[in-house]
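quick one, two chains, predict together pls
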Amino acid sequence: MADAPREVWITGIGIVSCLGEGGDSHWQKLMEGNPSGDASLFPPFIVHPIAPINFDTQIPKKGDQRQMDSWQRIGTYAAGLALDSAGVKGNPDILSRMDMIVAAGGGERDLNVDSTILTGTPHAANPAAFLNEKLMGDLRPTLFLAQLSNLLAGNISIVHGVTGSSRTFMGEESSGVDAVRIALSRIAAGQSDIALVGGAHNGERPYQLMLYEFAGNCLKEPFKPVWERDASGGGFALASLGAFLVIEAREHAEKRAAKPLARLAAVLSDRSNRKPGAATATLSRLWDKIKDKVKSGHAAVLSGASGAKAATAEERAFLEAQVLEANGDLAVRATGSYLGHGMEPQFPMNLALAVVALGQGRLFPPSDASGLEKPMSAPLDQVVVTGVGHWRGEGLALVERVG
Amino acid sequence: MASERGGSGLDKFGRPVVVVTGLGVVTSLGAGKADNWAKLTGGQSGIRAITRFPTDGLKTRIAGTIDFLAPQSSTAALAESYADLVAEEAIAESGIGSPGNFPGPLFLAVPPIEIEWTQRIEVSSRSGSNDKTTYPDLMRVAPQFPDYHHRFLFGSVADHLAEKFGTQGSPISLSTACASGASAIHLGVEAIRRGETDAALCIGTDGSVNPEALVRFSLLSALSTSNDNPQTASRPFSKNRDGFVMAEGAGALVLESYNAAVARGARIIGVLEGCGEMTDAFHRTRSSPDGKPIIGCIASAIKDAGLTPDDIDYVNAHGTSTPENDKMEYLGVSTVLGERAKIVPISSNKSMIGHTLSAAGAVEAVFSLLTLNNQRIPPTINHDIPDPAILMDVVPNKARDARVTHAISNSFGFGGQNVSLVLGLEPA
């Protein structure tokens, strides 16, 4: 363990969101500009629905698809894309020792059963007995398997054969940051050679909107890009998206002649109690650990800012005070303006988009009337990715071009 | 092992030796190690009729609920209160850090956290909807319940613990279904072995006995329906076993590097010698019929400990009392231990405390360490009709003194999750 940490490469990405599937489709939409959301599903709330997907191409058995709910299908699909991208799909030798960390929230509910119970309870002679009767009689037995957080990982094992190890982290945005951080730490320390890490989220669920609307967090019409929401009270638009990365030790990749898409140079996380200024201070401490590696002029920030008022204001304060001017007007882009906010997989998604931008060698145009996002025309060699939870959790990563 | 451990504090693979310096536990039997151990070795059952909510119309009406602590209004709040209690006990025993400042990260196994029927109905009635009630009605009044936001976030339990006990860094909430507690320990062991930290607080907690969670397991036909005799409902390895009994509880372990523990003069309770894990891709709820993932999991834990199967002298079984689990666990254990499987004692704590789900791996690791410390094996109770297909010494019905140097604790869960831990005593 005293050996120097091993270099870790990203060798595969798999992404799906409202922008489509795969790196090219995402890049095209980001270059076009004009982010927007959809208020038609749950008016007046805005969400970012998943683009149409042909699940058959990654989940060939209909029986498997039926056993999953939407978030699991999105995730299993994105995981398949990542394995394809890394060139390890269907390679039992590698998949059987591939480690997996999935960032997941809760599963799906049966809206009709919930509505029946809520509607009937006030009229029931014995409300508790009515609840028991409806749950016993109306719930689909296999629904539980679509609800368990670890069953996205379970489905990835079954469909794609990833069986080295399987862990599921929970805890909203932080779980996505920590999933990648721990997968990276294990590989760097020689505890693992190759890992599949990421997650999925279905934002088109009214009970999820309710959960975040308890704190008044959900963005209502009219749509605005992330940095422009502060004056009208802030808020995030829930997103459906899936994002997985294959990361591996450089020597492991070279041995199998896999091409690096990027180097995962650092992933850092912490937790502040979110008293005013605490998140800004925590981000600054994390930044101190990587800032010497960042080269002005060829670096940019992909921000995971959600639009949640306090969290986004603290991140903006951090970027303005520590990062942007101090590094020759470093460019920043909030991908959440385009993608919406997908909670657990948001950070892995932004790492994947960093890989896409590094592959293109440049950054996409700004989309922010508040003035934080500035144009950047220089070639892109490094991307700092931020992930600040709407309630808790601060994360930073550094992704670099290889060679 | 002993010689390798010696002065260097490294194991034979050159990694920091991971020791346990604090334990905490709560189950339906009681709070704290002393009470639990007395009842566990006394062969007492904590399973009883559910009184927390009406059970009219339910197929299963029994559970291992914790009824002696203050009631809470959700699984999240119950899990948090149990975790609080065991963290307090474990940290106090270890004497590590200072109040509110634990010098290492938190790894927490938690059950699914979600808004429950009590709150859903409360919000619904505030909505004033007269006709068909749907979620848009609830969303309209949701901002009137600001506390429900963070209460029902997955990260809320870990956040509370991190704030209260002052653990370092981002707290990890995790699930590997019924192996979660063991995975929390596994992650702590890995972090110490990487040299990232000298200590870790590993907790498994569960308070899922609510109507919907009970129904979910019930609909999968996983639960015992022996409602008339709750105390004999959990019958691991018996021929007439008919499912597991849902239960609540929490277990906490303070892990430290051997060198850090010795440097501060801590009492070493035991050694976390090895961890094994192997995923089963066969089915969402059933094990691969050939048992290969379970076999691989147990074997890799023993190998990770630098031991051989011959060194194992006690198995703390997952032993859920479902027909499937106990059969497959027997296949796994007997394949790895070979002929010795007939003589190595194996017992299931779940015969007394039921299945504490996300907490089980941590609770049972605590009991395995108490077994090592006391050189006494808790029994598998309710073992009146042995399963003739399971040829193991399950320590039937009565605790027994025995020489135990290396114990293995198994945890298996839905989604193909298998984790085994090897625990031992500090060498003299």
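Chain B is about 35% helix and 15% strand.
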